[in-house]
Amino acid sequence: MTRGRYDSLIDGVVTVVVMLAAWQGLFAYAGDVAITPPFTTIAYAAALLGSETFWPHVGATLLAFVEALAISTVLGIALGLWLGLRRFAGDVAEPMLAALYTIPKVTLYPVILLLFGLNLSAKVAFGVIHGLIPIVLFTLAAVRNLPPVYRRAARALHLTPWQTVTRVLAPAVMPEIISGLRIGFAVTFLGVLIGEMFASQRGLGFLVINGINSHNVRLTTAVTMLIILFAVGANGALLAFARRRN
């Protein structure tokens, strides 16, 4: 094992130990009416993972999340590239999108329910309205900050607009796009979970809110821990991929 990997391993172990100690301290302060201790939560989470009734909820959340992330990614990158290439359109759209993103998304949920009903489409739509705008803004900023020599080279080579985007712009701005996808991944997942909390009978978000309503602290804490582990692991994988691209 190299020195760098050894140091990273030590840092990871120390971080986990500190987090577990802080968790245990929070339990000692708040008691089991608010949170369960770490090892009790881990044991209950393991029991959930071995339960056949738990995995349909995981599948429901992952299905909605994958669909929402795919829509956010495709539309976000396409709109970001288009707005980045159209200077005037980008100047007009950027502050509007930034202002729109500051609106609390929860206030839009009644509209989402009226449009899509109480089904999978509502969860997907709620995930998309969280994840789309960050991806658009990151892609737009990446295209704008691209050195002009790239576009001049594309014009000198008489490339079509499609060739310019696919062969010149997209590869050049890929690191920034991946950074936008990391943010979009996190907020899209958050949007899907919030959607499940409001109007769903399946999913991890439903389990969390159901545990709160029934005062099942073990269920709420265990599902929350599993959600955090998934989010941290996925974000770490995206970060490692982004570093390789750089």
**Number of alpha- plus pi-helical segments:** 11
Low-confidence stretches: none
What CATH architecture would you give?
Orthogonal Bundle
Give the integer mean of the pLDDT values.
85
Radius of gyration: 22 Å
Please give the largest β-sheet: none
- Percent strand: under 5%
The topology string of helices and strands comes to HHHHHHHHHHH
**Count of domain modules:** 1
Q: Total strand count, please?
A: 0
Q: In CATH, what is the class?
A: Mainly Alpha
Fold-level CATH name:
MetI-like fold
Globular, elongated, flat, extended or rod-shaped: what is the shape?
Answer: globular
Would you write up a description of this structure?
By secondary structure, the chain is mainly alpha-helical. The chain has one domain: Orthogonal Bundle (MetI-like fold), CATH 1.10.3720. It contains 11 helices and no strands. Helix 3 (55-85) runs parallel beside helix 6 and helix 5 crosses helix 6 (120-144). The longest helix is centred in the N-terminal third of the chain and has 31 residues, at 55-85. The chain is globular. The two termini are 24 Å apart. The mean pLDDT is 85.
Map the helices and strands.
Layout (H helix, E strand, L loop, with lengths): L2 H28 L7 H12 L5 H31 L1 H15 L7 H8 L3 H25 L3 H9 L4 H12 L1 H25 L5 H10 L3 H29 L1
